[in-house]
Structures are given as C-alpha cells and as structure tokens.
Amino acid sequence: MSRLVVVSNRVAPVAEDQPSAGGLAVGVHGALKQSGGIWFGWSGEIVDAPPETPTLYQQDSVGYATIGLSRRDYDQYYRGFSNGTLWPTFHYRTDLSRYDRKEYAGYLRVNAWLVEKLKPILRPDDLLWVHDYHLLPFARMCREAGIANRIGFFLHIPFPVEPVLRTVPPHRELTEAMCAYDLLGFQTDDDCTAFSDYARRQLGAVPQAPGVLAVGRRRVRVGTYPIGVLPDEIQEQSQTHSNSRQILNLKQGLHQRRLIMSVDRLDYSKGLVERFQAFERLLEMAPAHRGKVSFIQIAPPSRSDVEMYRNIRRQLESAAGRINGRWTDLTWTPIRYINKNYDRLMLMSLFRASQIGYVTPLRDGMNLVAKEYVAAQPADDPGVLVLSEFAGAARELGDGALLVNPYDTDGMAQALGRALIMPVEERKERHQQMMRRLRENDLDRWRDRFLADLRGDEFA
Ligand code: G6P
C-alpha cells in the first residue's frame, strides 16, 4: 500500500496531556496515528533564515517533517492572505476581510516554496493529502514542479457561496488552482454544492457523473466527508480525571449548581459575544436559574497578532465583566471566562461533568467540540448539546441536539432553559441518537472513505 503524506500549515502532534491546537490538528493526528505516514508543514516557528531542508523526526507511527517560516512569509501568507482574507470570507465575514496584492503574492510564493521543500522527501507512489485554506494552490504548484502523485485536498472550514467568494479578488485563479487536485473533500453537502455551483458558473465546469466535474481538460472529483471523533477513546479519556482533585473541587465549589460548558479558540466566528448575551437573557427571563447555574467559557487566545482577534477579545472581556458585574453576588459568579487552554484529558472530564454543552458558532466547518461533548457524556445521565444550526455538526447531530440560531438571543436563552430542565429519559434518547451518528461517521471512517476515494480508479 502506498505511503500517506499529509500536508497542512500547522503540524501539531497532539498528546493527551498537551493543550490541543484546534480541530484540524486533533483530526489529522488521530487519523495519522492509526494509518502511519508523514506529516509535513510549518513548524510554528518564525525564523531569521528558513533552513534548506525540513527537520525530520519520528513520534510513534508518525514521521514529522517541519520547517520554519521567515517573518515576511508568516506576515503575508499566514497572517495576511490566509487569516486576513480567506478565513473571514470563508466564514461569511466579508466585513472583516481585507485584500492586499502583496499578501496574495506571498501566499502563492510560500505554497510554491513548501512544494519545493517537500519534493525531495516524496516517493513516486506516495499518496498526498493536503489540508485547509492555507494550501488551496498547493496541488497546482506540485504539478508545475513535476509531481505527478495523486493529491487530495480536504477543507476543514466552510466553502462560501459564489457571491461571497467573489469578494476575494483572485477567486477565479484560486478555484482553478484547486482543480489541480484529484479529489476535493468538504465537511458538508452545502460546502460541496457551493464549490460545484461556483465551478459550473465561473469556471465552466461540466458535471460528468455524480461527484465528478470536468474543468477544461482536467477531471476533479468532489465529495462530502464529515470529520468525526473516536467516541470510545473520548469516553475513556473523559473518565480519567473524574475523581481528580481539580474536578472534585470544581464540583464542590459549584454547590450543586448546574454547569454550562463551552470551549473554543478565541475567534470571532465562534459567536462568543452572542453566546454571553443569550446566557444573560436566560438570567433575565428565568429568575429561578439565578444563582443555580454557572457558565464556564474556556477560550484560549488565537492568532493574537491579527487585529480582528484583538478586537473580539476586548469585546468579550467587556461583555463578561459587564454581565458578571450585574449578576454576581457574594457566593455566585455566573460566567467564568478563562483565557487558557487545558489538556485534552481535563477537557473531556469537564465535558462529562457539565449538564449543557453550549456550542454556538456563527459559522463553523464542523466543530469537533460538539462531537467531543456528546462522546464524553455518561450514557445513564447525559448532558444536553445546545448547538448552532450554522455548525457543520448540526447536519449530523440535528435530531439529538437542541438546535439554535446564534443571532436569536431569546431563542438561545429558551433553549438553555429547556436543556436545564430536560427529563433524563429525553436526554438519554437524544444522546443515543447522537451517539449512533458519531459511531457511523467516526474519525477512522472519515480517513478511510477519503483515502479510498483518492486511491480509487475513477480518475483513470
Ligand atoms: C482551525 C483551522 C486550522 C487551524 C486551527 C488553529 O481549526 O481549520 O487550519 O490550524 O484552526 O488555528 P491556527 O491559525 O493557530 O493554526
């Protein structure tokens, strides 16, 4: 069987006792651990002079090949075009997006440079699996460098509809470049359809068979591959700390209060301000819950050198301060807003100890926290997932979760109120439904389906 070479901007070995670095890292690491292979990408360091060759090391069954970026490359490719233009636009925040030709040139340059650094490590029959928006033109650059391997791409974030994508000036060049991949994978049918519709209208793509587009002389396959979790592993992890001092102290300190739990990178796409406001609305609407419920928001800072991220942090600090100032009394603080990350075992135990998983992004590719929350629950007394209808996860968990529109403050407050008093029988039924979906679409299946399609002979 051919060797698997994964490429992503952030390469992050995830140990159970290390803070995690987002959905991509958790998913890709989990998938690679099982199959073995090589993971190539940015080391996370900014260096004065990037080295000629990547640093290679092995950890368990995974080989790592990582390389530092120069300050200019980091500014233009990562901070600039990837996170200042593509990230906001793909999350439908065109109001926060900006475009700079120099940054785009840097984005293309770094993609080509990464290809050049990967090439010497590649074997002719390696299967390449490239991840996320930082690397849309990676396959195009590979082809130009004479790399003929089969190359698949998976987008972890949403793919926007045509009028939104067109706000990115080089949209056509970018999507044409995406067609140099053999297989394009998306989180949901909506994302996949958005790409196919765009390709038909803007690139003159012609559907040839279900999931196959002819674009000029190339044929590209497209498909939906919702990323999943490993439910049994999470069950186990969620029990490791159940009797630890920290969890017992937390439970004791709560004095029988109900616990609402959220964990997100501090990102404007996560709907944190709206979420705080809806929690406050619950306290306004339902006096019985005052003093009886605590909301823990864990939000480790992310991309702090991008201005929009500093702004959202300020807004949140002010919302948390204002709400707590209004409602806190001598024995109760309604919101615990925590700006640091916890290791995975602790997070899973916290999920298990909380009665509500409150996951309300304004827009999200999948949101693995929603799935992790469900997988961490005790089957005989599970908590309730309150989930945004704009998270990719809502497509699979919509029957068991309480779906909310994060722009509807009253609706979210009502859903929290309903979750807080939901009888155990209903909670169990909803939990079982969601667990069935998690098991059907787990992380192994995500990887296996994608790689089987990438290996398949349909391209011949
Ligand atoms: C999201 C993206 C990933 C990214 C992660 C963390 O999950 O889809 O590509 O790695 O956020 O963001 P960062 O900018 O720190 O890599």
From TrEMBL:
Keywords: Glycosyltransferase, Transferase. Signal peptide: none annotated. It holds the Pfam family Glyco_transf_20. The keyword Isomerase does not apply. It is an enzyme of class 2 (transferase). The keyword Glycosyltransferase applies. Its EC number is 2.4.1.15. Homotetramer. Probably involved in the osmoprotection via the biosynthesis of trehalose. Catalyzes the transfer of glucose from UDP-alpha-D-glucose (UDP-Glc) to D-glucose 6-phosphate (Glc-6-P) to form trehalose-6-phosphate. Acts with retention of the anomeric configuration of the UDP-sugar donor. Belongs to the glycosyltransferase 20 family. PANTHER family: BCDNA.GH08860 (PTHR10788:SF106), TREHALOSE-6-PHOSPHATE SYNTHASE (PTHR10788). This is Trehalose-6-phosphate synthase. It comes from Pigmentiphaga soli. The gene is otsA.
